[in-house]
Design a protein that fits this description.
- The protein is an all-alpha fold.
- It has one domain.
- 91% of the residues lie in helices and 0% in strands.
- It has two helices and no strands.
- The protein starts with a helix and ends with a helix.
């Protein structure tokens, strides 16, 4: 998937007539953005798991009352 995205990006940059240094900058921005997104999704998964754990504990506590 990332290779397809980068191929599309290369084609778009070629159409725009960017210099090689501009292309390198755009590629690095896109790749960094993708990495940040992956890290954010991982953090969101951890937060959701913790929320689910606390919710389960609360449900159990209410059931035991």
């Amino acid at each position: 998937m990332i290779n397809s995205m980068l191929d599309d990006l290369d084609e778009a940059m070629l159409d725009l007539g960017l210099t090689s240094s501009q292309e390198d900058l755009v590629r690095s921005i896109v790749i960094e953005g993708r990495e940040r997104s992956k890290r954010a999704f991982k953090r969101a998964d951890v937060i959701y798991d913790k929320f689910d754990e606390v919710r389960t504990e609360l449900d159990n506590a209410l059931d035991n009352k």
